[in-house]
Design goal:
The structure holds two protein chains of two kinds.
Chain A (H helix, E strand, L loop, with lengths): L1 H4 L8 H17 L8 H6 L5 H17 L2 H15 L4 H14 L3 H17 L4 H13 L3 H14 L4 H13 L3 H14 L4 H17 L4 H21 L4 H11 L16 H8 L9 H4 L6 H23 L9
Helix pairs in contact in A: 2-4, 4-5, 5-6, 6-8, 7-8, 8-9, 9-10, 10-11, 11-12, 12-13, 12-14, 13-14, 14-17
Chain B lengths: L1 H38 L5 H5 L5 H20 L9 H11 L22 H4 L6 H14 L1
The chains are: A mainly alpha, B mainly alpha.
Chain lengths: ~325, ~140
Amino acid sequence: MASSLLRPPGHLSPATALQLSQQAPIIIKNSPGAVTASALSSLFSAPETPELWTIYENLLLSCLRTGDEESAHLCLGRLVNRFGDDNERVMALIGLMKEADATDDATLEVVLKEYEALLQENPTNIPIVKRRVALLRSIGRIPDAVTALTGLLDFSPTDSEAWSELSDIYFSQGLYSQAIFALEEVLVLQPNAWNIHARIGELLLMSVKSGSGDQNDSAKQLGEALKRFCRSIELCDDYLRGYYGLKLVCFYDPPYRPSKAVGLTSRKTTTQLLNDPPKPPKQAESDGLAPPNLSTLQKLDGLATEKLGEITRRFTAGEKGLAGL
Amino acid sequence: MTWFSKSTTTFGFLLLAHACYSAYEHSALQSHRAASLSSLSATTQQAAASSSLPLDISLETIVATVIITLGLVLNTAKLRPIQWRVWAGQIERAGEEGARNSSGEIDKDFVGNPFKLLESRPGFVDIRKQRKEFAEWVKQQ
C-alpha cells in the first residue's frame, strides 16, 4: 500500500485509486502534520523523511481523482505549511486543485490567467509551464498548447517528460512523423527506455497503417518499426508489448495492396514490402542497417509467436511472478 | 531455507561459545598449575611448554567461525539482477511482487519501471479528464 503511494498514481486503475483515497483520512491522521524545526521537539518526534511528502503529494492526486476534496485540501495544506506557497511544485499543485474544483469554462479561464500571471513573474517556472500546457490541452486549445510546449522545450531541451507529452499531442492530431521525432528526442535523453522504443515502433506501425506515405516510405518505416521492437525486446526480457509489436509488424497486411492469393498468409506481404524490387536506391545510407531478408523475418515471426504463446500460457496457468502483466 | 540457515548459525555460535569457555578453563588451569608448581620450586620450563592452547580448541574455534559464516551467507536475500535486460524483464513481469525481500515486504527503494513516467507524465496530468473517467467508472460499478 505505502509503496504504491511513493509513485505517481496516474497509471493506477480506478479501483486502486479509490482504495488509496479511502485510506486517505487514516493516513493523514497517522502521519505528522508538520515537522518543527526546533531542536528540542525534533528529539521527541519521528524524523522527517522525504517519503512523507511524496506520500502527501500522491495522496493529493488520488483524492482529487476520486473527488475526495476534504482529504485533498488537508494534504495540500500540509504541503503548503512545509514548503510555503511560493515553492514551484506546490504552486503547480495549488493550480491543479483549482482546475479540479472548477465547474465551468469561465473558472478555467481564470486559472489560466493566474498561470500566465505567475509566468510573467518567472517565465522559467517549469511546473507551472507544464500545468498551463496541460490545461490548454484539456480545454481543447491544442495549437496554443503546442506553442507553449515548444517554448518550454526551447529553454529546457533536456526535459524528456515534455518531449514525450509533445509526441502525445502530435499523435492525437495524427501527425505521426512529428510524434516519432519527439520520441526520438526522448531516446536521445533516455537511450535505455524500453517502453519508448516499443512506443516508437507502435507509432511507426500506425503511421504505415494510416497509409499516408508512398510504398517506399512504408517499407522504410516497417523496417524501422521492426528494429525498434527488436531493441525493446533486447532491453527487456520477455517484453510482452515488444513481442506483440514484432508479431504485428511481421503479420502486417497493407490495406492498399491487394493480396495476390486469398489463401496466402499475410505475413508474406510484409516481406514483399520489405524486399520489393522498387526499393529506395540506398536505404542503408540513412541509418546504416539494411532491411532484414526473408529468412530473418520468418525467424523473427516464429520467435514472436513462440514467445507470445509461452507468456500467455504461463499467465493463464497463474504462474507466480507474472503479477505485473 | 531460513530454518536451515538459522539453525546452522545457532549451532556455530554454540560451538564458538564452547571453544571460548574451553580456552578460559584451560588458561585458568594453567595459571593454577603454574602457581602450585612455583610453590614447589620446580623448574619454570615445564609450565612454559604447556601454556599454549591445545590444538582441538583452536580447531573448534576455526570450524565454528566457518559454520557461522555459512549460516549467515545462506540467510541473505536473493541477489538482485545486475543485467539490464534481466532486471527490466523482472520489473515488467513481476511488478511489486518481484521486489519482496526475505521477510515478504516490498522494498522501500522499489521504484518500478523508471521509464513509465515518460508515458504517464505526472507533470502534465489532466485532472479533469481523470475525474470524468473515474466518475464513469463509479457509475458502471
